[in-house]
Specification:
It contains five helices and seven strands. By secondary structure, it is an alpha+beta fold.
Length: 176
């Protein structure tokens, strides 16, 4: 028997039970399992006035902007807990990717680190512009840092989607 193993397992089991209870509470709010995908979509819909998709079977289409300069445009929503320069770029017909991210990360080992659920920045990418820049379709497409910088709409602002003070306050609720 390895010393401390039983204590560590018991403590970890207790923490997992606590996490499961919190996840159940979150699921009652968002109506889905509390994965980053579902939570990111739920948050983005409320902050940026995005509709639910008309069909859950519509791949990559997470909704349509209801107002503002992108009214009527389709969007795929992502929440990455770290910004590592990768983006799930589908080959499907849509207009934009709205990407919520935590802090910048690296491809180095994750050993000894965490991935807290925070929103430090938001990016809006135009699907056609990404293709024109040579970004290939794939689940982990590499996107140059310059394109990330150009796409940032929060906390800095660039691009076609202005972020209101109310939206900034809402996003700040999820800051580290």
């Amino acid at each position: 028997m390895i010393p401390g193993v039983n204590h560590d397992l018991t403590h970890l089991a207790d923490l997992v039970h606590e996490r499961n209870a919190i996840d159940a509470k979150i699921a009652t709010i968002v109506g889905r399992p509390p994965t980053t995908g579902h939570l990111g979509e739920w948050i983005a819909r409320r902050v940026f006035a995005i509709t639910e998709p008309t069909s859950a079977a519509e791949r990559a289409n997470d909704g349509v902007f209801l107002d503002g300069p992108l009214q009527g445009r389709t969007v795929n929503i992502k929440w990455y807990l770290k910004r590592e320069g990768l983006l799930d770029v589908s080959g499907f017909d849509l207009d934009h990717y709205l990407v919520l991210t935590g802090p910048p990360g690296s491809s180095a080992s994750s050993k000894g680190t965490t991935r807290p659920m925070t929103i430090d920045a938001v990016y809006l990418f135009d699907h056609d512009a990404l293709k024109a820049q040579g970004v290939k379709a794939g689940t982990a497409s590499s996107v140059r840092a310059a394109l990330w910088n150009e796409a940032e709409i929060y906390p800095a602002h660039s691009g076609v989607l202005p972020v209101t003070s109310e939206q900034r306050e809402s996003l700040a609720l999820f800051a580290a």
